[in-house]
Amino acid sequence: MWPPEALEFLAELEANNDRDWFRANRHRYDEHLVVPARKLGGTLTDLGEVHFFRPWNNTRFRPGPPLKEHLAMTIGAGPAVYYLQLSLDGLLVGGGLHHPARDQLDRFRAAIDDPRKGAAFERTIEQAKASGLDPIEPELKRAPKGYSPDHPRIERLRMKHLTVFDRHELGRWLHTTTCDKRVRDQFHAATPFVHWINNRVGPSTEPARS
Prior knowledge:
alpha+beta; 6 helices; 6 strands
């Protein structure tokens, strides 16, 4: 759970998004945002190691504000991981592989095309949905090359982001143990989905982009 001061900090950060202000207030960021997140991560060690995203945006190649106006972390070694993001837009809980490489998409579609593996994937989706996690809407308008538009799992074949997620509206529950329980329950509900991606898709073997 995060204290009310966490949201107060994010609101002030949105109004003062510059490096000097952040350096002067870094202790608040650590105390009210990072420390509670680390405590939560400590209750999820069965899912993997916690990794925090840096608060700085890379503005060398993408102009914009110097600081991310959220706290984000992942759990697990991937390629599919668990993801948590707290911002003024809400608490996002999710899991999966957000930007699969071309070879990963190829393996995903081949697995979906297989009746047994495809049926197992559907079961992971149903388990995730039962806890409030939904897959991202398919990005492709048509069936990918080599697959029939009448395929029984055409909706899955049209996916390009292999994730399930739920965005919770901010409220007083965020400051109570309800928050931690909700995150834990949804991460565990996403576990079959995450495991399916890791086992059936696996890491990319394509050369890293420069």
